[in-house]
Write a structure and sequence with these properties.
alpha+beta, two-stranded antiparallel sheet, 5 helices, 22% strand, Tscrpt_reg_HTH_AsnC-type_CS, Lrp/AsnC ligand binding domain-containing protein, transcription, transcription regulation, ArsR-like_HTH
Length: 156
């Protein structure tokens, strides 16, 4: 069913998405069994969900600590200029910093929220001082260091 420009998914489609979020490597046979339909209709639905952009791709959950990137910090960034040209310059530059794993423009008292992964606080301090603070139009940053991750399935 269409509702405006979006398609409303039925319970089976929603269940397929829920199962795929839990285990994207599940076989179509097992997926079909879990959602209560036969294999061919399940595969057709899965392909449609991919084609229509509900499922964008598949990824692996990574043990960042083993890769020396277990330290997480969130950084609030305030920029001095919020005109499109300045924001585009910031956006282009922040994408080049490999330690920044997420960057969100915010509707808040600050402009951007970054998720930064490093080996430890010492490495983070270097990334902040040499890379993040040097981004175009950065006027202020505030850091929030993660002490313990309680919920993070790595997929959202």
């Amino acid at each position: 069913m269409k509702a405006g420009n979006t398609v409303q998914l039925d319970k089976i489609d929603q269940n397929i998405i829920r199962q795929m979020r839990q285990n994207a490597r599940i076989t179509v046979t097992d997926l079909a069994e879990k959602v209560g339909i036969s294999k061919t209709p399940c595969l057709n639905r899965l392909k449609r969900l991919e084609r229509d952009g509900y499922i964008l791709g598949y990824t692996a959950l990574i043990n960042h600590t083993k890769l020396a990137a277990g330290h997480i910090a969130y950084v609030q960034v305030t920029v001095s200029d919020t005109r499109s040209e300045a924001l585009n310059a910031f956006n282009d530059a922040v994408r080049k910093i490999p330690e920044v794993t997420q960057c969100h423009m915010m509707a808040a008292s600050f402009d951007y929220l970054l998720k930064v992964r490093t080996k430890d606080m010492t490495e983070y301090r270097t990334v902040l001082g040499e890379k993040i603070s040097s981004l175009p139009h950065v006027s202020h940053t505030s850091t929030f260091a993660v002490m313990e991750t309680v919920v993070d399935p790595g997929t959202d």
